[in-house]
Each structure stands twice: as structure tokens, then as C-alpha cells.
Amino acid sequence: MLAKDGNIVYTYGLEKAEELKDKQNIIFCDKLNKAMNEKVEVVIGPIPFSSNGKYINSPFSDKEISVREIMANLNAKILIAGTITPEIYDMANDEYVEIIDVMKREELAVLNTISTAEGAIELAISNTNRILHGSQVLILGFGRIGKVLAKKMQGLSAIVTCAARKDDDLAWIKAYGYRYININTIGENLSQYDIIMNTVPHMILNEEKLQYIKEDCLLIDLASKPGGIDPNAVKERKLQLIWALALPGKVAPITTAEFIKDTIYNILKEIYK
């Protein structure tokens, strides 16, 4: 997409991405310093940038690309990547490198909720033996994902209940016309739901709460690690849990890439005013 817009794109660690070969404006490099040459102003890394803090994620390469080597070759260039750990920020500071986490951008976070919600609905349809129309659906949390998911579920005529802690969130849930419940009061009332979707990234449905959930209830955890549903307790109770991480890239890679590209352009506009 960047090349199609007329940008010259040097790549390294993408040699297995066959669909990129012979594309105009894309130059494959066999050495990192060739890819990060003096003509390059911006370096774009993967999302997440690194899983172990030592090497960047490179699923389209057999090479081990060192984070430290990337930092050492930046030479006043801007590095844009995603889900960057504090340790890598420290490393960047050591090398006097400017590093920007694209996943912390509000516009990308909001847009990603669309594909997350659609992916969650796809999982709900394909993993239950009933239609969503008329199903009792509980959404835990009323942040970005919770808001979009509730609207789309209601559009499919599900009976939507949203759970939140804050009084203002509960007021908004009521204003939107959903059923509402304080997340601190869930317990026996969990038994009425056919589908429960969690968006809160800390433990909500523990062993105590899970005892009230009916056997055929589908649990979908959309929260990042450590998640909000106890997987061990789920296994013991033989309940069905899907921990759906990184849905945007899985269910809509083209749209997600467009959102990332547009966010990168926004970042560059801010830098090069």
C-alpha cells in the first residue's frame, strides 16, 4: 500500500512475502544496513515489535533480526512499530532513538474496534447452535470495544446487556438503550446468558463467578493478556471459551493494514509540520 502511494519502500526480513516481489517501488535488501540506508527517513517495524525483547517478530523471514542491531542502525531515523515494551524504550533511549508505538494512537485503537467486533460476532455465530436474534448476550466492559460490539450485536437483534463499574458508563449504557448491570454485582445473574463477551483486561470471571454460568454458554475473551476469564476454571467446568487475541489482523488484514497506513501518515504529518 505504501509503495502503491508512490513511496519507495526498502524491505528486510520479508523475503518470504512472495506477493511483494516484482512490485513497483519495493526494493528487497539482503542486508539490514542496505535497507536502512541514508535515503530512508522512516523505519516501520512489526506489531508486536518483539515477543522476547531480543529479536523483532519476522514471520516472513528465517533471519533473526536483533532489536539492538535495529537500534544501532537507525541513525536519527524515526522508528514506528507496535506494542513496544518498556525494555525496548529503554534500549531506544540508550541509542538516542525516536520510537513511536502506533498501537497507542487513539485513531487506530478506535478503528480496530470495528474489525474486533465483527470478528467476535463471527466467532459467536460459528461456535453456537442458535441464532444471535433473541440470544441473551452479556458484554463485560464498556470501553471502545464494548461500545462498538454492543451496537453491532443489538443490530442483529440480540438482547444485549452491558456491564460496567463507573456510574457514567452505566448511564451511557442506559442512554443507548441496552440493559445494564454493575460489574461488581455479577454472580447468580450470569446464568441467564447464552453468550458472554469480555473486554476487560483483568480477571472478572473467576472460579467463583464461573459456577453460575450455564453449560452451553459461549465465552469469548477479547481482552489482552492476562485476559478476564480464568481458563483453568473454565477447563475444570468444561465450559466453552475462545480467547480471541489480535482479531483485527486475523479477520480483516487488508482493512487493518489500511488503518495502520493512515495512522502512520498522521504521525508523519505531525512530525513534519
Task: Describe this structure as you would to a colleague.
The chain is of the alpha/beta class. It has two domains: 9-104, NAD(P)-binding Rossmann-like Domain (Rossmann fold, 3-Layer(aba) Sandwich); 109-250, NAD(P)-binding Rossmann-like Domain (Rossmann fold, 3-Layer(aba) Sandwich), CATH 3.40.50.720. It contains ten helices and eleven strands. The strands form three sheets. A six-stranded parallel beta sheet has the order 8-7-6-9-10-11, sandwiched between helices. Helix 5 links the parallel strand 6 and strand 7 (159-164). Helix 4 crosses helix 5 and helix 4 (106-126) runs antiparallel to helix 10. The radius of gyration is 22 Å and the shape is elongated. The model has no long low-confidence stretch (mean pLDDT 94).
CATH topology of the largest domain: Rossmann fold
Number of domain modules: 2
Main pleated-sheet profile: 6 strands, parallel
Specify the helix fraction band.
Answer: 25-40%
CATH architecture of the largest domain: 3-Layer(aba) Sandwich
Give the strand order of the largest sheet, numbering strands 1, 2, ... along the chain. 8-7-6-9-10-11
Please tell me the overall pLDDT: 94
Strand content: 15-25%
Number of helices: 10
SSE-based structural type: alpha/beta
Low-confidence stretches: none
Number of strands: 11
What is the first-to-last residue Cα distance?
Answer: 23 Å
CATH class of the largest domain: Alpha Beta
| Shape type | elongated
Radius of gyration: 22 Å
CATH superfamily of the largest domain: NAD(P)-binding Rossmann-like Domain
H-E string: EEHEHEHEHEHEHEEHEHEHH
